[in-house]
Amino acid sequence: MSASYPLVRNRYAFSTRFGVSRRPSRSGSSPRSASSFLIRSCIVLFYIPLLTAQSADALYADRANLASARRAAEIWAAALSADPQNFGAAWKLARADYWLGGHVTARERRAALEQGIDAGRKAVAAQPNRPEGHFWLAANMGALAESFGMQGLKYRKPIKEELETVLRLDPAFLDGSADRALGRWYFRVPWLFGGRSKQAEDHLRASLKYNPNSTASHFFLAELLLDQGRKDEARAELQKVLDAPLHPDWTPEDQEFKAKARKMLDSLKQGLAVAWAGTRAMQNLLFGVTAGDPRTFGAVVVLLGLIALAACCLPARRAARLDPVAVLRAD
Question: What was the pLDDT predicted at 22?
């Protein structure tokens, strides 16, 4: 008579010839093992994007090494390709492309900045009420406009609109970066297309309210003051760039602005020395004329203008006398 086996009350146990076993004969074939494997897999899949994002952020923090910046951009580009609504990947890719656009070769610059513009637009589409997408979209368009001259003029209005949007959403974003960029916009855009020195200075000084040690704001302000002939004020701004502490999040940028400020200060010192020596030499050669005589300066300007006019008019008159048909036949 065969032995009777008790009913299996535990759902993880099963019957064998020798009674009730709580473990399967093959590893991984029980429901408990399967559920544990699924849980572990879900945990791993959950953390992979987090680890990837952290690694991309770490790579971008090392952006002074161009290879690290490229790798960070590749990671964010892949994430954005997989999910076009990924706001974080979109604006971070736009930020990385802006950095790359200022440091890669001229041949690669346009592609990097155009990718940054596309990423910025996707960030704006995903989160229109967040400043990140608007700002980095404007930054990439501005860099493209400065790099390619007249070809970039088409971006002048969109740049201004995006920066004004940032000001409306969050004026303090990135320590007043919207004011800083608008100050740059008013300085770089020709007067005919809306550029104004007064507005440029107002915006640059407004940005310093959020971060009085901003190397970018002080440097851009120094460029504006130099353009207006306010050299003493410009030198003071350049010295502030050199004296400012490095920002922990913007150390590579700060270091670059400090290098530019140091170079500009050296040029100003050399220029002053040459101008002083030239002034003294001219005073010894000229009698009855001071170094800053306004009539002399005016006469020189008029003379140079007449020379330039003659250089343009004479060839133009000569070309106007030619018969176009005769010229074409001769060719």
Answer: 47
